[in-house]
């Protein structure tokens, strides 16, 4: 029997009383929701301002992480490390970007023969996060005995002046930039792993301009994909050695298997990479484009099935009796099992990094439609059509892809050439290690 309304109100009241009376309970609740108590935040601010040099304190308040790495104590009698700085580190939230960062950490450390350390700048992480992180690093990445420092551990921690650093998200690069202003970090020792144009993830604001400034901090850039480099060169005027650019990691063997399992049938399945909670994936534009495609197809649309993957959402009426049916977020193995059933893919991203879904689909034989981004996606792959981000242009491109699939069927396995996307990460890490060693 479900609980009665009065019982629910009573239980909720007890929870609220516990929240008010117990500081430990408040901290646990806020940690679960990715937040900190005001007292915790104030305590961190006071400690960092008390310890940071005057040259760093100028930057206090620009962003949350400004002083985080300016509270370190230089000490030549401690071992040197390669330090990976992350906005946060949670074992249950290590996806493509963080996994790539850990691969970079392991690769550089092996080349310069130094132990590794991971630093998380989020205010709300606790010891159990570090414990779970060490297990993940050991079991998934083969990294043993990794030191993990949380934000509250940093003030007064002893670091060797000869440490090597890896910045990831722009907030971590900003923290290292401030530490370099305070002469605590050598700029030439910092590898800046750039995986998207992150100023675009914020409104035009202090955060936007601070994010842009990190590209000009004098760090050694390591750029994920040639299209992203093209945008950085055009927008920021960066001069990045071509050997410091690498291709996104694709599972070539699995994609070849997907291509081999594709076939032709009486119906065409269109897969839409739809994530309503991620603005840069243009969910609403994708829906409008699908509606336009169904409208153009008319009676042809009766043999088209449209599904979305990436995130749960309600079914969406596309008109003409067609519905966008959500599959939600898929496990990795389930994704590769489903991929060969969809020979047409719509995947949008309003940022210069080319994104995995459209490239994986094109490489494995699907006909793919995406949005152009300042010319960075032209000629990436013969089966990838990049058009202006409008329902008319995307809808027409989808219709062309559906008709091409019906006429020709899927394509064969066809990797993207190095000059279009970037070289192997291993080659880039060797080049980086020669600079920062």
Automatic annotation (TrEMBL):
The record, for InterPro entries, names: WsaF_C (IPR055050), WsaF_N (IPR048510)
Q: Which residues form the signal peptide?
A: none
Residue span(s) of domain WsaF C-terminal: 269-398
User: GO MF terms on file?
Assistant: polysaccharide binding
Q: Which residues form the WsaF N-terminal domain?
A: 82-218
Q: What is this protein called?
A: Glycosyltransferase family 1 protein
User: Per the UniProt entry, what species is this protein from, by scientific name?
Assistant: Labedella populi
């Amino acid at each position: 029997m479900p609980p009665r309304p009065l019982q629910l109100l009573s239980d909720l009241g007890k929870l609220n009383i516990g929240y008010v009376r117990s500081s430990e309970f408040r901290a646990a609740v806020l940690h679960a929701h990715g937040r900190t108590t005001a007292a915790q935040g104030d305590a961190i601010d006071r400690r960092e301002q008390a310890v940071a040099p005057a040259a760093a304190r100028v930057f206090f308040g620009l962003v949350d992480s400004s002083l985080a790495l300016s509270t370190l104590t230089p000490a030549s009698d401690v071992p040197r490390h390669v330090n990976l700085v992350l906005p946060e580190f949670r074992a249950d939230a290590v996806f493509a970007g963080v996994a790539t960062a850990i691969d970079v950490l392991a690769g550089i450390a092996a080349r310069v023969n130094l132990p590794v350390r991971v630093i998380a700048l989020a205010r709300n992480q606790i010891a159990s996060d570090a414990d779970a992180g060490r297990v993940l690093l050991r079991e998934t990445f083969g990294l043993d005995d990794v030191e993990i420092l949380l934000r509250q551990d940093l003030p007064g921690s002893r670091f060797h002046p000869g440490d090597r650093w890896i910045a990831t998200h722009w907030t971590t690069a900003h923290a290292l930039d401030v530490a370099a202003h305070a002469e605590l970090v050598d700029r030439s020792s910092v590898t800046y792993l750039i995986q998207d144009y992150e100023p675009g993830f914020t409104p035009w604001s202090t955060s936007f301009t601070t994010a842009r400034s990190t590209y000009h901090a004098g760090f050694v850039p390591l750029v994920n994909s040639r299209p992203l480099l093209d945008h950085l060169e055009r927008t920021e005027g960066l001069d990045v050695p071509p050997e410091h650019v690498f291709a996104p990691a694709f599972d070539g063997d699995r994609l070849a298997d997907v291509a081999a399992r594709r076939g032709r049938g009486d119906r065409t399945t269109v897969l839409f990479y739809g994530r309503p909670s991620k603005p840069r994936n243009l969910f609403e534009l994708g829906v409008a484009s699908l509606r336009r495609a169904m409208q153009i197809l008319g009676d042809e649309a009766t043999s088209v099935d449209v599904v979305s993957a990436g995130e749960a959402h309600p079914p969406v009426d596309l008109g003409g009796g067609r519905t966008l049916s959500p599959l939600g977020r898929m496990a990795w193995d389930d994704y590769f099992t489903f991929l060969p059933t969809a020979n047409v893919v719509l995947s949008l991203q309003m940022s210069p990094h080319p994104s995995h879904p459209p490239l994986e689909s094109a490489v494995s034989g699907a006909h793919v439609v995406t949005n152009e981004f300042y010319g960075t996606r032209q000629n990436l792959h013969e089966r990838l059509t990049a058009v202006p981000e409008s329902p008319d242009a995307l809808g027409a491109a989808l219709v062309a892809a559906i008709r091409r699939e019906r006429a020709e069927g899927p394509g064969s396995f066809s990797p993207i050439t190095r000059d279009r996307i970037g070289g192997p990460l291993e080659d880039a890490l060797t080049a980086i290690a020669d600079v920062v060693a």
